[in-house]
Write a structure and sequence with these properties.
Length: 355
Amino acid sequence: MQPFDSRKTEYKSAVRAIATEEKVKLRIIVPRAMGCSGARLAVRKDGEDTVFYGMFWAGMCGGDHEFWELHFYATTPGIYFYHFELDTPWGLNYIKKVENGLGDFNAQGAEFQQTVFDRNFKTPAFLKGGIIYQIFPDRFCSSGAPKKGVRESRVMRKWGEEPFWNENQMNGIWNNDYFGGDLKGIEEKLPYIKSLGVTCIYLNPIFEANSNHRYDTADYEQIDPLLGSEKDFRSLCRSAHKLGISVVLDGVFSHTAAIPNILICIPIITVWALITVRKVRITVGINLRITQTAIKAGGALNSYRRWKRKILLTANIYAAKTAFCANGFVPAQTVGDWMWRMNCRMYFWMNSELP
């Protein structure tokens, strides 16, 4: 008999993210031979201490197993980790995650995870009933415009050639072959995209980076030259807007390249971003680097308030400020203020104050 399965409603009434204040029934199945005299749910919200909730004996499961249950709910949104603890004549026992969402008697197992969102959160209305078209910029369409400032480390391929797929073809170079797809090429294809009934374009990262997928951002304030310029991006957004198509960027703020060109070493900042149809919490890193020097959280940054303010108003909201700027930039007043709605319908909430 499986002690716990986080992916089955027989053990967990809600197999999904839950809202704040929403009750979830959790059930474990314990062999009678263990002599369990008490059971607890151990819950730890990310960044906080563990809290224990007593479970109640809920009857027999067959002739040699028994149920222990409780109803759990969270009052604040976040990521929660949990496991179960049992009191037995032989000491404390644990039910932890082993694989594929299963729980077993294993003190060395992993924690289960539960996402909790604000019950007042609403998904953006403009996406409902629409069609999202995801584009990998380098491989979608090339305008044929000359590429300037291409680094020597980048392997430029001819449009239409077969992508590298074999390790012997790559000569040790991974994710470094480029076909030259660009923003102008996407704009040229807008009538075709519109003909498919698309209402929103989701772009993979477009900031300057060291790989063709561009998830290892090197500069959040610079569109990758191979894709075009900020002027090209403005033009794409304007043209898409005229066709009733929204544009959403993949903002990669939770990770970056080894040596980014800007410092995001501000532990007090938390940004809430509405991206496509879900709310994503992005906590700015505390040990990212500029050039070769790593600055620890706090400390040195306290004496750079003016520069720190600039980072807050550019690095952390640049994707929203730039991504949907067909009508120009929308200035931020102070961190913590409500940001004006931009063409992309992306919103940012900043809940920290400037020093």
